[in-house]
Amino acid sequence: MPLAVIESLDHEGRGVAHVEGKTIFIEAALPGETVEYSSYRRKPNYEQASAVAILRQSAQRTEPRCRHFGVCGGCSMQHLEPEAQAAAKQRVLEDALWHIGRLHPELLYPAIYGPAWGYRSRARLSARLVPKKGGMLVGFHEKRSSYVADMDSCEVLPARISALLPELRRLIGGLSVPDRLPQIEVAVCERQVALVLRVLQPLSAEDESALREFADSHELVIYLQSGGPASVSLFHPQDAPPLAYTLPEFGVELRFSPTDFTQVNQGINRMLVRRALALLAPRQNERIADMFCGLGNFTLPIARCGARVVGVEGASALVERARANAELNGLAASTEFRVANLFEATPESLAGLGRFDKMLIDPPREGAIALVKALGADAPRRIVYVSCSPATLARDAAVLVHEQGYRLRGAGIANMFPQTSHVESIALFER
Prior knowledge:
Elements: E1 3-5, E2 8-9, E3 15-19, E4 22-27, E5 34-42, E6 46-56, H1 82-101, E7 122-130, E8 135-139, H2 159-173, E9 183-188, E10 193-198, H3 205-218, E11 221-225, E12 233-236, E13 244-247, E14 252-255, H4 266-280, E15 287-291, H5 299-304, E16 308-313, H6 316-328, E17 335-339, H7 347-351, E18 358-361, H8 369-374, E19 382-387, H9 390-403, E20 407-414, E21 424-430
Helix pairs in contact: 1-9
């Protein structure tokens, strides 16, 4: 069995080593460790492998809390202490900014992190009937596989949801169409827990009765989805309150549909909004853009500070939700929302929005390259960029600094997904 000395972690949380001139990416290995490994993919310049034995162990190694770790693909870093996870993610961000953008932030912000377990308020579980494994399986996919992991608990889900996994297996396995219900979406709100069941075939009256009884006995709200997101409908109870989360520091409540994008970690989201607003420093009567505004997660807190905000989003349904949330919170007079495809932004399309004093950008993983390239001489003097991909943040930061004349004042991570390699970050640009 070959040996390797681990030098660092890559952006997916794998140990990186070099053996005979080839780079080896080794799962479940940590910097400073000497490991035996087994390769499962070989390419001319690199190999992907799994650690088979740890011969010299890192002081930051810890015992994975979840017994499904290593099989379930939902987590990849449970073997590393939570504080060390945040430090590793900060290094991933710094490395991306330098190697892709040739940039060093003037200031490194302290990492934002919170509870390491039971934090996940949003999840998409798969359900599959597998007679060879005892019947119905409900959980996340196995690592590097489309198979559903055989799970009866999950440590990153709230304890109440984790305890529901065996109950959901029994519920779905007892329906008349157990093989036609492939997905369960979970939304944990402050007032309720909602499940969205993807149902590809009509349910029988007995099935519907079983779902109602399950919802009542576990105090759940159940939605059904027969097709795309627009097909989601409330099933039981019919008088359930709307789904919502709050940002108490700003006196804001945001309502959402169960399939809308919201952050999976409510506590970290609150801290991220707080930091974003502190960096943006909105002032009375400033005109501020919130690009990729979604439901208004940043728009409404900015407006609460007295600024006039224009939220821009590509999905018309989200824009309507954002407008409704502004009305709900008494902020309609200081907010305006536009539907626009920011992935195709041009100088002309940005000019049509008017001049802004400041801007917040919160794009999906693809980043905002067209938007930052479209900024002109009259661009905002301050930009706060919230990112879920260090690579696209670094690419866009290079344009902002090297082409648009901004300075990268600071950057830091938010550990939105503890136990995983996902890196959420925030950066401040000024000119």
